[in-house]
Amino acid sequence: MRATAALLMLLLWGSVALGRARRGERRGKARGGTRKGTGKRSATECKEYTEAGQTYLDCQDRHLTAVPTGWRGQVDHLILARNKIQTLPDNAFVHFKGLKSLDVQQNQLAGIEARAFAGLNQLTTLLLQHNHLRLLSEEALLPMPRLAYLRLYDNPWDCQCQLDSLVRTLQVPSKRNLGNYAKCAEPPALRGRRLKKVRPELLCPELEGNVLQEPREHSLDRTPIKSHLDVTSICHTYAIPTPFLDCQNRGLKSVPADIPSYAVKVDLSKNNIGHLKNKAFLGSKEMRLLNLSSNGLQHIDTDAFAGLLYLRELDLSNNSLRHFQYGVLEDLYFVRRLALGGNPWACDYNIHYLVYWLKLHPAAEHSGLVCRSPAEFAGWTVHNYVKTYNGECPKDGPMTRDATLDAGTRNPNALEPGDQDPGALELNVKIVEDEKILLPRPLSGPKKYEVIRLT
């Protein structure tokens, strides 16, 4: 009996100990899981690369909800675009004090604390566009004395008293590249006004001393009428590693008039731009790559590419182009790649200008230049078509009466092989006699001259 009781006590104690061990194991796994979740915020999962001697840490599209931590190396440029970061707390970039540029666009940013950028005294470029920011104080910019480029557009800025210090900072003449294109979303009276141009006293009219106010008629809820497309509200811009404007598949029917002058790459593909008008890119002097493919483009004005002196790549593929007007390509001195495939090129006299330009610019690689019409040249390369203009004309054979009265019927007066037409012989004799008359004749004799001596 005692042995049985002892055995039961041992079994009970063993089960209790086993339960404790399992609970401890589960707690350990939970702690490990937490560390793993935190690891998703680690910078070690980002991609590091070097370009032109500068170190880039690319953390785009990582579903990050906070600034990554744990990085110990030197980073010059940090890319956090297209994540899910909602706030930037104080000292958010304490591990990246040597940054020169910071890209936090296309997140869900709704708040930035005053000391969020503490320690970034080398930063020159800050991208905060395409977020949910309504307020930002001037104090947040103070830790960045070298800041030269600040992008704030496509945020719902609330232009009231709390934004007064930021607006006044942006309007300092020496800060001409801070906050360009950013606009007020609230209040209704100021909706659509640019932060760089709105009168600061209108943000806090109730404060003592702000006696200048808008006339009463301006207090109505009026949304300004846009005279042209606002590229900053419909396209995405990237500054790292190369300034890039992405307007792909935005339903555009014309080239936006306010393409940023600093854009190096511009993608306007998959829109509905059927006509390129003169001087469409006049202010885009830094552009090196332009993509206009898949637009249904039918016509390009002669000066459409004026100003694109340094353009290197031009993609016009998959459009409805049949030829270029004379002079269209004259501003493209340094183009090295020209994509022309997928267009219904018409091989007639109008295509010669394009071939002539390509011949004068042998460094420009091109592709897709194939005839679509007329039917007899369909499938030919344009270059082979142009060669037909330089071929020798067929030589005329001897004149005979071997003519047909109609298809498949032989002329009864036709000569048999070996016969000679007397009429033709008579004609040849007359031609020879006429040629003799027209031949130059020698002088009949030496002409004598009289010499007169003058004294």
From TrEMBL:
Residues 23-44, 397-421 are annotated as: Disordered. Residues 155-205, 343-394 form the LRRCT domain. InterPro entries: Cys-rich_flank_reg_C, Leu-rich_rpt, Leu-rich_rpt_typical-subtyp, LRR_dom_sf, LRR_TM_domain-containing. The keyword Hydrolase does not apply. SUPFAM superfamilies: L domain-like (SSF52058). Residues 1-21 form the signal peptide. Keywords: Leucine-rich repeat, Repeat, Signal. It holds the Pfam family LRR_8. It comes from the Eukaryota. Residues 23-39 have a biased composition (Basic residues). GO terms for cellular component: plasma membrane. This is Leucine rich repeat containing 17. It comes from Scleropages formosus. The gene is LRRC17.
